[in-house]
Amino acid sequence: MPREEFNKALEELQISINAVEKTVKKMINGSIEALNTRNIDLSNKIIDMDDIVDKYKVEIEAKAIFLIASEQPVASDLRKIITIMRVIMELERMADYAEGIAKINIRIGDVDLIKPLIDIPAMAERSIEMLSLCLKGYRESNVKIAEKVCDMDDEMDALKDRIINELMQIIMRDPSTSRQATFLIFIAHNLERIADRSTNIAEDTIFLVTGSSRELK
Fold this sequence. Notes:
- The chain is mainly alpha-helical.
- The chain has a single domain, classed as Up-down Bundle (Methane Monooxygenase Hydroxylase, Chain G, domain 1), CATH 1.20.58.
- The protein is built from six helices and no strands.
- Helix 1 packs antiparallel against helix 4 (119-140).
- The chain is elongated, with a radius of gyration of 19 Å.
């Protein structure tokens, strides 16, 4: 395959990654909107969107494997392809966590929430910000941006801990809230895991730029 065609194939993979990014962001936003507004129909739509991401993942991985098998790329090109495969894997897992939030909302049911949602939407907003930033760092091969994503992950951990502490206090005051409070804790956990996946992409960026696989923490 001529170099020009190889570069075009990589560009097509990047375009697919961009499409998955947009879908995952919609899923995260939608899952929290559905939770906040008690919208079960929207939760079902979010669940259906996960199939779109799964399909993209299969297609991207197949194309990437074909490039490796047919071109036997040099080390720098191989890193690009491997990183693309890692990125789509992380994005697919983020979609799974957003789908999980939608499923939890359905399990909570058509009832009022035990508390106004403040920190959970803040976590969702932060997770989307981290997703945007980690993929910006990836596209620009920018290690400094990758390091910033890692710092943001610590903030997500702190938000999750605050949510858990608040919900545990609510349970202690009123044990009848324990079922829904537990579900809300699961949602905070899912958002924290989405942030972790963005951190993984940041680490993949360092691998892409330096050729070294290392954790930022």
